[in-house]
Specification:
mainly alpha; Peroxidase, domain 2; 11 strands; Peroxidase, domain 1; 739 residues
């Protein structure tokens, strides 16, 4: 367990319950089998996105009338709608929750979730219990989205609205960056394996008696929640240690430390109220399963109940402070001023109420400000007082309003921007000037001359380093990129820094030798450029040795990050548990190894042919991890490693070979034998054989293996290789927006 955050690190990212499962877990079709299925309309490459493929969200955002947009959002905060009246006459708290829950699905394990695609509009998120009645918040925004059209994505609008909500109630805001893209269909994200929602008695994903952490890469404690069960672990309010443990673990998996956790909890709960006016079974279904005529609304839809404020979402009822639409320090003041007793909300949820509160510390009724009602705290709130570490931070904020202001503003900015990647992707007039360590800053690089590049590549090929070594070093540097949160990649050359330089998948001793030689040869080139260019030179040589003259046109001008630019701990989740491209598997997991290859290819933004070509090419080049449990040549199905050939596919599909499972390998290693003589020919893993066993992958492999297919294979490999090497070059792609 990490001493700073309490986060349990290391271990298999897919340990689950020990049984084999799918990386997708339960899908929308499992939850709503009768929902309209549109997949047939996506066949033959048809897109769900109505915009042109080259539509530029950043350019569109930069053209918006930003000042007027914010003015319209500010006006909306107090322009109550008859069909959904605002608590206290102000929608601010409602929109803060909407923005929080749009961003709060982010998890460090795989970088998925978060605010960057407007995914809250689609199932399953639009129907999670924790997102109850946020369908109304999104509909309140529709007139503004309609007015500004393509100049503001839903993804940007959710977060900007949350910022405006905070500002309109006097709260601190650190800044805003726009340019997020929208999606137009549910993203394929693993949200968990449970077959029940949290409010149906699902057990926690943390199992204290076995010492297990949350099912990686998940962050929320239960299916259908954004963070933790506010009533306590498994709904138990009498487990303060467990409550703090759950909060610390889940917030750490969403990239938050203890101070940020306290600041976000207190700052968010400074506004608005929770809703638990009646048992939840008295209301309707979630939006995805409701009747057609409700037009996408779910949960509470009865006008009379809405008008009375008889609303239930979490089941907890009441405001945290006596001033629910004003920023201040009432949250901590009340938390420490009173002793609290356990009570139940009208909906039957466990919550805590101050004992004998003073009249001035009572909250106004959400619909009738002339009435006063008791404030409340959840079990999660009580953890900020009960847990020793949280208490220290809370007492600091109690006595230092400026510290709370700054901590909340920064934590909120991080929450809502963590998945946007490099700062250069942020657009708009409110982007903070300060560089933040969690943005993975990289100093600007210098573009080398063509002659310098040519001289370096020539020197590399004469250095004694092998094609395999150079290809592996370049892949180790670039393939950390994740298109989920845009972290990782070759820019910055962090492969030479902790923790990446020591990852087993990178063959640290060999990597260190290669990096030392490249540093010796690079001259004025950055190390980031040198690593990528050396890989390009190796691929060009390997292709030429196979009879193909190709140019691997990777970009240059990368910068080198130092330790001062790198939060080493935050890079630990990027370590591959499995990398099928290098035939690496740390240990057997509860998902099939080939599924983890698909997952990594998805994070790299690869198509099926691109993934297939890269695997076959890496094998032909001998670029497999020496530390793999299966050996350093397994899957290299060629007699001429180091040559970019289609040998992998030709030999894998050779009908003269039969494959058998290697005993005691757990169905992970296989031996290929001559069909007639029985002599051993090759050794391979699941991520090799899947290209012969899976019909769709085999169809691609056959194209590359057939006579005349080698040229297509080399072309696809080089294109895919270049794509991975340049995946993180947002400094180039976004430069035009910052002139």
């Amino acid at each position: 367990m990490d001493a700073k955050t309490g986060s349990i690190s290391g271990g298999c990212p897919f340990h689950g319950d020990g049984g084999t499962r799918s990386l997708l877990g339960r899908t929308n079709r499992d939850w709503w089998p009768d929902a309209l299925q549109l997949d047939i309309l996506k066949e033959d490459g048809r897109r769900a996105d109505p915009y042109d493929p080259d539509f530029d969200y950043a350019e569109a955002f930069n053209a918006v009338d930003y000042k007027q947009l914010k003015a319209d959002l500010t006006a909306l905060m107090t322009d109550s709608q008859d069909w959904w009246p605002a608590d206290y006459g102000h929608y601010g708290p409602f929109f803060i929750r909407m923005a929080w829950h749009a961003a709060g699905t982010y998890r460090t394990g795989d970088g998925r979730g978060g605010s960057s695609s407007g995914q809250q509009r689609f199932a399953p998120l639009n129907s999670w219990p924790d997102n109850g009645n946020l369908d109304k918040a999104r509909r309140l925004l529709w007139p503004i989205k309609q007015k500004y059209g393509k100049n503001i994505s839903w993804a940007d609008l959710f977060i900007l609205t949350g910022n405006v909500a905070i500002e309109s109630m006097g709260g601190p805001v650190f800044g805003f960056g726009g340019g997020r893209k929208d999606v137009f269909e549910p993203e394929m994200v693993y949200w968990g394996t449970e077959d029940k929602w949290v409010n149906e008695g699902v057990e926690t994903r943390i199992i204290p008696e076995e010492g297990k952490a949350l099912d990686n890469p998940l962050a929320a404690i239960q299916m259908g929640l954004i963070y933790v069960n506010p009533e306590g672990p498994g709904g138990n309010p009498h487990d303060p240690e467990g409550m703090a443990r759950d909060m610390r673990e889940t917030f750490a998996r969403m990239a938050m430390n203890d101070e940020e956790t306290v600041a976000l909890t207190a700052g968010g709960h400074a506004f608005g109220k929770a809703h638990g006016a009646a048992p939840s079974d008295t209301f309707g279904d979630a939006p995805e399963g409701e009747r057609l005529e409700l037009m996408g609304f779910g949960w509470l839809t009865d006008a009379d109940e809405i008008a009375k404020g008889h609303i239930t979402t979490s089941g907890i009822e009441g405001a945290w402070t006596p001033n629910p639409t004003e920023w201040g320090n009432d949250y901590f003041r009340l938390l420490f001023k009173y002793e609290y007793e356990l009570v139940q909300s009208p909906a039957g949820a466990n919550q805590w109420q101050p004992i004998n509160p003073d009249p001035e510390d009572m909250a106004p009724d959400a619909r009738d400000p002339s009435k006063k009602v008791p404030t409340m705290m959840t079990t999660a709130d009580m953890a900020l007082k009960r847990d020793p570490e949280y208490r220290k931070i809370s007492e600091k904020f109690l006595n230092d309003q400026a510290a709370l202001d700054d901590a909340f503003a920064r934590a909120w900015f991080k929450l809502t921007h963590r998945d946007m990647g490099p700062k250069v992707r942020y657009m708009g007039p409110e982007v903070p000037a300060e560089d933040l360590i969690w943005q993975d800053p990289v100093p600007a690089g210098t573009t080398p001359s063509d002659s310098d590049v040519a001289a370096f590549k020539s020197a590399v090929l004469d250095s004694g380093l092998t094609v395999s070594e150079l290809v592996k070093a370049a892949w180790a540097s670039a393939s950390t990129y994740r298109n989920s949160d845009h972290r990782g990649g070759a820019n910055g050359a962090r492969v030479r820094l902790a923790p990446q330089k020591d990852w087993a998948v990178n063959d640290p001793d060999e990597l260190g030798k290669v990096l030392a030689k490249l540093d010796e040869l690079r001259g004025n080139l950055s190390m980031a450029d040198a690593i990528v260019l050396a890989g390009a030179a190796a691929v060009e040589k390997a292709a030429k040795d196979g009879g193909h003259d190709v140019s691997v046109n990777v970009t240059t001008g990368r910068g080198d990050a130092g330790e001062e630019h790198t939060d080493a701990e935050s890079f630990e989740p990027l370590e591959p548990f499995a990398d099928g491209f290098r035939n690496y598997l740390k240990t057997k997991a509860s998902v099939k190894t080939e599924e983890m290859l698909i997952d990594r290819a998805h994070l790299l933004g690869l198509s099926i042919p691109e993934m297939t070509a890269l695997v076959g090419g890496m094998r032909a080049l001998g670029a497999v991890t020496k530390h793999a449990a299966h050996g350093n040549k397994i899957g290299v199905l060629t007699e001429r490693p180091g040559v970019l050939s289609n040998d992998f596919f030709a030999n894998l599909l050779d009908m003269g070979t039969v494959w058998e499972v290697v005993d005691d390998s757990g169905d992970e290693e296989f031996v290929g034998k001559d069909r007639k003589s029985g002599a051993e020919k090759w050794h391979a893993t699941r991520t090799d054989l899947v290209f012969g066993s899976n019909s769709q992958l085999r169809a691609i492999a056959e194209v590359f293996a057939e006579n005349g297919g080698e040229a297509k294979f080399v072309e696809t490999f080089v294109s895919a290789w270049t794509k991975v090497m340049d995946a993180d070059r947002f400094d180039l792609r976004c430069a035009k927006y910052h002139k």
